Amino acid sequence: MASINSGNKGTRFFSPHPHHHTICTRTHQIAALALVVATFFLTRLFDHSLGPCSSSFRNSFSDAIQRSDPDDVVRFGGYGSLLSLKIYVYDEGEIEGLKLLMYGREGKISADACVKGQWGTQVKIHRLLLQSTFRTRKKEEADLFFVPSYVKCVRMMGGLNDKEINQTYVKVLSQMPYFRLSGGCNHIFVFPSGAGAHLFKSWATYINRSIILTPEGDRTDKRDTSAFNTWKDIIIPGNIDDGMTAHKPRLVDPLPLSRRKYLANYLGRAQGKVGRLRLIDLAKEYPDKLESPVLKFSGPDKLGRTEYFQHLRNAKFCLAPRGESSWTLRFYESFFVECVPVLLSDQVELPFQNVVDYTRISIKWPSTRIGKELLDYLESIPDKKIEEMIARGRRVRCLWVYAPDSEACSAFRGILWELEKKVRRFHQSAETFWLHNGSVVNRDLEDFGKWKPPMPLP
C-alpha cells in the first residue's frame, strides 16, 4: 500500500465537469487590470468614508501617530494596534465606605476641589473611565475593576485620618466578591502622590496583588520597601495645570531660546534634601546662569500659577531634583514651557517606557554630581541640539495630558494600553477553588454567585 506522503506527491484534483481551456486575450488582460485598479480606489474610498466612526480608529492610535518618527523618539507600535478592554467602575453608592474615601467623613470635600493640583489624577482618571468607551456596566464581562478613591485629597483636607483610611479600605474590600475571587489582581487603585500605596497603611496585606497607578516608583527614603512593583503596577504622569495643557490659549507661551535669561532654573523648596540644597547654593554662586528664587506659597507674596510658569519658561534647561520622593511634577511641566528637563533623581521611574525614548527628550544627571560641572556641561550643548530636543518633546507631551480616550494620544490612552497588558484570562486566590464542572467556590464550597459580604479577604 502506498504511503500517504507518496500519495500526496502525485495528487490531482479533477472537476466533475469537463475542463475547457480559455484563451487569454489582450482584452482579458486589460479588463483584469482595470478591475484591480477599481478595487484599490473603491477600498481607499470606503476606508476614508468610515472616518473616526470606525471601531478600529477609536481603539488604535491615529495614522499620524502610528507612523514612526524620523528619530524614533516614540514608538507607539509597541502598544499594538487595537485596544480590547472592558473595565467596570464601582459606583460610589454601591459599596459602603466608598463615599468616605471620596468625600471624607462629613461628605463635604468635593471632587472639583480634589481635581486641582498635582494629585488631581485620582479624580481625572475616575471621570475619564466613567465616560470611556471601554467601560462596562456588567461585572461578569469585565476584564478589570476600578476602585474610585480621592484619599490623598481627603487626607490633606482633614476629611479622614490615617487610621480611618485604613479601616475604610478594609471595609470596602470585604464587600467586593470579585476582589476576593481574584485576590485583587484585576482591581485598579490610584495613589497620586509620592507616598504611593502607603496612604493605605495595610496595602501590603490587602492589595499587594492589585494594579496600582501612581507617579511614584520609589519610596526608599522613608520606607523599608517600595509599594511599587514594576511587573504589575503602572507609572502615570503627574497632573499638570490645565491652563498649560489646553490647546489655546495657555497661561503662558514658550519663549524663543534667544530671549531666555538663564541657562537653567530650579523652582522649588529645599525641603532639607541634599540635591535641592546644592542647587540653591549653586544659584547663589552663579546667579547669572542658574535661577532659584525663594518661592512663597502662601501670604501676600504667594507665587501665582502664571508667575510660576513665567519663571519656568525663562531658561533653556529645567532642573528636576528629588524631593520628598523620587518623582517630580516639574519634569512634566517643562515640556509645556519647552525647556529641556534635567532629572536629578537617581531612583525615578518614568511612564510609558516601552514606547518613549527619554534620552531623546531629556537629560538624567547623577544627583551626586550637582555642581559647577553640571552647569559647564549644560552650557556646552549647542542651541541647535536644544531646539531638536524641544521639538521631539513637543511631539511626545500629549502623553502627559489627561484627555478622553477619543483623543489619539493622551495620558489616559497610554494608561489603557498599559492596563491591556495586565489582563488575565483566569483568576484565582488562596480563598478561591473550582470544581470539575467549572464552578468557582469558596472554602465552604459555596458557589461564587452566593458569596455574601462581608467576606474574609485573601
Question: Would you give an account of this structure?
Answer:
With 458 residues, the chain is of the alpha/beta class. The protein is 34% helix and 9% strand. It has 18 helices and 13 strands. It has a six-stranded parallel beta sheet, covered by helices on one side. Strand 7 (262-265), helix 13 and strand 8 form a beta-alpha-beta unit. The longest helix has 25 residues, at 26-50.
Structural key phrases:
single chain; 458 residues; alpha/beta; 6-stranded parallel beta sheet; 5-stranded parallel beta sheet; 34% helix
Overall pLDDT confidence: 84
Number of strands: 13
Q: Please tell me what the overall shape is.
A: globular
Instruction: Output the structural class.
Output: alpha/beta
Strand percent estimate:
5-15%
- Widest sheet: strand order? 2-1-3-4-5-6
Give the helix tally: 18
Sheet having the most strands: 6 strands, parallel
Report the helical percentage: 25-40%
What gap, in angstroms, lies between the N and C termini? 63 Å
| CA-atom Rg in angstroms | 28 Å
As residue ranges, the low-confidence spans are: 1-22, 43-70
Would you spell out the secondary-structure blueprint of this structure?
Blueprint: H1 4-9, H2 26-50, H3 55-59, H4 63-66, E1 87-89, H5 98-103, H6 111-114, H7 121-131, E2 135-136, E3 144-146, H8 151-156, H9 162-173, H10 177-182, E4 187-190, H11 203-206, E5 211-214, E6 234-235, H12 242-245, E7 262-265, H13 274-285, E8 290-291, H14 305-312, E9 315-321, H15 329-337, E10 340-344, E11 363-364, H16 372-379, H17 383-396, H18 411-420, E12 433-434, E13 440-441
Parallel strand pairs: 1-2, 1-3, 3-4, 4-5, 5-6, 7-8, 7-9, 9-10, 10-11
Antiparallel strand pairs: 12-13
